[in-house]
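Hi everyone, sorry if this is the wrong subforum. Our group has a chain we'd like a structural model of before ordering constructs, and none of us has done structure prediction before. Sequence below.
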Amino acid sequence: AGDVVDAIEQLFGPATPRSDTMPARPDTSFPIDTEAAFALHADPDQTSVDVEVDLPIPAIGGAGTAQLRTSVLDQLIYTTLIRRLDQDVSSGVAPFDGITNGTNSIVAALDAPALYAFTTAERVDATLQSLLDEYERANRYGFTADEIETAKSSVQAGLDARYDGRNTKSDPEFADEYVDHFLTGAPYPDVAEFYDASEALIAAIDHDAIDARFRARWANSAPHVLISAPTAQADQMPTEAEVLALIEAL
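Answer:
Right subforum, don't worry. Here is the predicted structure as tokens:
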């Protein structure tokens, strides 16, 4: 650690300020679009047809546990949704070949998790309908206690693995977390604190809280559909009007 500090001081110690006052940070906030939307991404290098359905809402900020709790709630929700859809794949009734969780939460103000399916041009409409149906099913009927207990076990196992591997964390991971903390004020608990807080939150959450979190997102957002396809198959993809009609028909 001492060598690192010495190197930093050697490299940056002689630096002088460019001005006497710190420039004001630019306003990078923007309104979150919560109306239904569609985009088609056609790429000649794309080899599969991928269907992604996001549900964007403004992200919860702050350095307390509220942000961590919503993160855990969303993990449990999407773990359950993916498990349901993956069971359809395993039983051969899904109109897609694989399902995973996606995200477009690429800026601090945006919270946009997604269902992400791998399919073909012939099944793209059925795949989109399936993802929309699963969201609507969760909104109408919620999640069962058994589903949530299974999801909690899965998320806890991931937390345990992260804690067990705490002594093999790579330098880039440390650097990314330091930068995020410095630039955005993101909390930076040590590994034990993060583990204890997350474990307590996982244990305390019940299926009523999960239902409420999902229904709040569904009520305050709308599906954003992104379809990625090979350029040669772009004309086989649904139009914006057709996608918005599917969403409206829910």
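For your construct planning: Strands lie at 37-43, 49-54, 57-58, 98-103, 110-111, 113-119, 224-230. The first helix runs from residue 2 to 12.
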